[in-house]
Amino acid sequence: MSAIFAFAALRPAPEVASRVASVPYDVVSTDEARALAAGNPLSFLRVSRPEIDLPEGADPHDEAVYQLAAENFAALKDAAPLVLEETPRFYVYRLHMGAHVQTGVAACFSLDEYDRDQIRKHEKTRPDKEDDRTRHMLAIGAQTGPVFLTYQASPAIDAAVARVVTGPPLFDFTAPDDVRHVVWRVPTGEHDAIVGGFGAIPVLYIADGHHRAASAARARRAWADRGPGEWDRVLAVAFPDNQVQVLPYNRVVRDLNGQTPEQLLEALGRRAQVRDGGPATPAARGSVAMRLGARWYTVTFPATDALDVDVLEREVLAPLFGITNVRIDTRIEFVGGIRGAGALERLVASGGFAVAFSMFPVSVADLMRVADAGGIMPPKSTWFEPKLRDGLLSHLMAPPSSRGSR
Question: What phi and psi, each to the nearest 5 degrees, are found at residue 233?
Fold first, then answer.
């Protein structure tokens, strides 16, 4: 079974929710975050990326940055205002992105289950990124950006959610990226149905937010001497697998490892079928679109059960480019599929990168298969869209001195 817990959310007043809500901290650079928050003193980026309020060039991991996060969080509670719910509740969070709609349950989940892999992972985490978010959580005493979970769709949970969304929403706004965010408070009369529905789910899977989850587990260990508490849980939104949308995570490489384009094509032709032309986005698994110079090439590998990202590393990146560890090699970067193939063309045309690889997206079934086997996907294998917003529903890890509702 999967344990699920209601929580007393710290949330914006509905009339300012659209101004408070921000993109996840880890999908934008400092400069991008600064631009997004410009002119908006209520942007939650001032809490999740507080270095934007410091002079350019400030070290984002200096202790002063985490202190500023706590100060900005405290100030935002008054300025927005942020409101603390009177009683623990579940929430339903729906995302609209064009024709795509997905609806999940926002709640807290068990870090005991995370530790024993009942909440399954498919990516390794980086210690430096864990350090950053752990320090951030401990500094502000809260989890402010939810982990994105998925699970095998459940008719019981679907039915409970369907009943909830017939009522008036707490939040309903469209963000600047045209994604609509709608949040409902779950009536307490539906809580048993939610708990029972998840009680029949054997395992949950982290789709996005491995570093947030790992940091929550580390923050919990840091406060272990306090005994049981809210720090034993992690904030997340769980979506059924049949509603989750996965986009590709593409790769760009800075140089050809001493080869000419002709030499690269010749070497690649000995490992795969290479065809001049073809779509900029692969039409099926087993093919990769490669941007070299001003042309697209279709690279098709022999059939295999391996993920395309694994095949690309084994057959192309390691032997032809000398990139044996994509986690640390600075010659490779990753581009989320939401940016489109045009972004890859521009990066190669700029001269900053010599070649780009446009990938076919990994499926949710692939993610679950790898996680069930205890495997790990290569870094940046999946890009989930649409993204949840930070700051809409925060989970206080330590009990506050006062409560209010609005």
Answer: -130, 160
Q: Is 293 exposed, middle or buried (0-12, 13-18, 19+ CB in 10 A)?
A: exposed
**What is the per-residue burial (b if ≥16 Cβ within 10 Å, else e) of 303-341?**
eeeebbbbbbbebbbebbbebeebeeeebbbebbbbebb
One-letter amino acid identity for 217?
A
Distance between CA atoms of residues 36 and 25, nearest Å: 12
Which tokens hold the place of 124?
A: 């390794």
Q: Give the CATH class of 249-360.
A: alpha beta
Do 160 and 104 meet the contact criterion of CB atoms below 8 Å apart? no
Domain boundaries for CATH 3.30.1760 within the chain: 249-360
Instruction: Return the pLDDT at 208.
Output: 94
CA distance 288 to 309: 9
CA distance 221 to 22: 28
Contact present, 344 and 356 (Cβ < 8 Å): yes
Q: How far is CA 65 from CA 23, 41, 54, 366, in A?
A: 19, 17, 8, 38
The distance of Cα 346 from the centroid of its chain, to the nearest Å, equals 25
For residues 33 and 49, the answer to whether their CB atoms sit within 8 Å is yes
Going from the first residue of the chain to its last (406 residues), give the mean pLDDT of each consecutive group of 10, the final group possibly shorter: 96 98 94 96 98 93 96 97 96 97 98 97 91 97 97 98 98 97 98 98 96 97 93 98 96 98 98 96 95 97 92 97 93 93 97 98 94 91 94 85 37
d(C-alpha 382, C-alpha 270), whole Å? 28
Tokens of 295: 């042309």
CA proximity to 96, closest of 160, 169, 4: 169
DSSP 3-state of 114: helix
pLDDT value for 126? 86
- Going by the DSSP 8-state scheme, the letter that residue 302 receives in this structure is P
Q: Tokens 């054997």: give the residue.
A: 202
Cα 336 from Cα 330, distance rounded (Å)? 17
Give the C-alpha distances (Å, rounded to integers) separating 113 from 12, 108, 110.
30, 12, 5
Q: What is the DSSP string of 241-290?
A: GGG--EE-EEEEES--TT--HHHHHHHHHTTSEEEE---SS-SSTTEEEE
Helix, strand or coil for residue 358?
strand
Is there a contact between 21 and 391 (Cβ–Cβ < 8 Å)? yes
User: CA-to-CA distance for 172 and 369, rounded, in angstroms?
Assistant: 35
